[in-house]
Amino acid sequence: MSAGNLARILDRRCADRPDVPGLHGEDGRSWTFDQIDLLAGGVAAALRAEGVGPGDRVACYLTNGPEIVFFLFGAWKVGAVPVTVSSLYNAAELAESVAKTDPRLLLVDDRRPDVVAEFLAAAGDAPPVRSVAEPLAGAAALPWRHEARVPAVDVAPEAEACILFTGGTTTGRPKAVSVTHGGTRESLGRLARVSTGTDAEGTAAPDAAPNLIALPLFHSGGQHSLLFAYFVGRAAVVWERFGVDRLAGLMDRFAFDNLFLLPTMVFDIVHAERDLPFAGVKSVLVAGQAISWPVRRAFEERYRVPILVNYGSTEAGHIAGWTGRDMKAGRWKPGSAGRVYPGVELEIRDDAGEALPTGSSGEVVVRSALTRGYVDDAEASRDLVRDGWVHTGDIGYVDADGVLFLVGRKRDMIKCGGFQVWPEEIEDVLREHPLVRDVRVLGRPDDRLGEIPVALVVREADDAVTDADLADAVVAYARDRLAHFKTPRRVEFVPALERSTTGKTSRAAAPLPEAGKAAAVSQEGGS
């Protein structure tokens, strides 16, 4: 398998099925692979006119939708590096993302002009900002809506392909992880080999059902789903966001034969009053976090469609999972993360870095060329990648059949609705509230979201403010300053937080909910 520019995946689909629809929007628009290539070429030409070339980073703060496909491939065509910033971020989070990654250009749309305006007002040395839609104050329009045939430039396998925001260390702040062209293609080939029996490109029939890209394209799962669809030769359906009614409509329209969903989405499907048209769906792949057994059982009993799982990460790629063939052969083991995929070099190591024998628990470590580390934290990068081995931070063991079981994780990261939430970031914000003396944020199990952030708060005395009122105020305070998925879903008041001899509060030693007064606040969650 060639390890060239990711844009070559689109080149090959344009060559072997140019007139086949390759991209659909939920609004009825569609584009053939040839049209996608020409519009991506228009983006490439526009970026070159802005002085963007190989190795330059281009930050994309864009509402999820089919147009992002053109910007990803347009950037790759000229050898540029998309920095995919969550469209859920507020101005401060956008500014932090830009500061960490130092892009040559920032692309925005006209969906959140207030955030863009606030960002521009506060940013003294921001890169040039261009709107891909209507011009905004301080952001001239990028003229990309024209067709151009722009061949992809050559890049080295180890060249930076994209920057995605993820967790990654115990430092508690979101990390900007750099992934490579060659490592991404290797991961795609591995998943194709497991799914289809071959790592050859373009194996899907031209009339195969499209794949729904259920996760946003700023998310590693969404981006990898898009690339995988094109790698095997399927079209992609890209929407703005998940909704049960939206999903039902698209299922009627496109007759999907497989779906890749987050556990949050499966939860909503299970609890929806309406029945969805799953008749032609052969399997549902779930990744991003563990799915609770009651939700899985309820889904499979209702729709008679098996749920498969995939374990991996932005930094390490696809590591283990279950396929339909595994299920039919009776290889599935409850509670496992899946069989380690063929070609994956995986070791279970102890704290000293020594490989452990079969059945022993330790950190899951994988040899991978997918990531170059974190662009904003050299120390964390050295901890993540050591001699070509990615340290996942997950604790698990592999049994005699090559099946991986996860038993915990070294990191304190919370997986809320498929998004990675770092407690320290929330704590930094909540400590600014005048009635919060101390705070510790923990993850608590939740059937729908997997985990939810819960704030244990030591409050300042104020007889005029009840616990219930302060809980509402604390959540509102966080909501105004953080993306919605980072907002605590519950506030629990405790008299004190236990500290170590070094003065740090331990999450392991933090009081359980029943140890303090709890004030629950209902929050609308989702992915």
Brief write-up:
InterPro entries: AMP-bd_C (IPR025110), AMP-bd_C_sf (IPR045851), AMP-dep_synth/lig_dom (IPR000873), ANL_N_sf (IPR042099), ATP-dep_AMP-bd_enzyme (IPR050237). With 527 residues, the chain is an alpha/beta fold. The chain folds into 3 domains: 172 residues, 3-Layer(aba) Sandwich (Rossmann fold); 103 residues, Luciferase, domain 3; 107 residues, GMP Synthetase, Chain A, domain 3.
Give an overview of the whole structure.
The chain has 527 residues and is of the alpha/beta class. It contains 14 helices and 28 strands. The strands form 5 sheets. Strands 12, 13, 14, 15, 16, 17, 18, 20, 21 and 22 form a 10-stranded mixed β-sheet that branches. An 8-stranded mixed β-sheet has the order 7-6-5-3-4-8-9-19, with helices on both faces. The radius of gyration is 23 Å and the shape is globular. It starts with 6 loop residues before the first helix and ends in a 7-residue tail after the last strand. Mean pLDDT is 89; it is low at 500-504, 509-518 and 520-527.
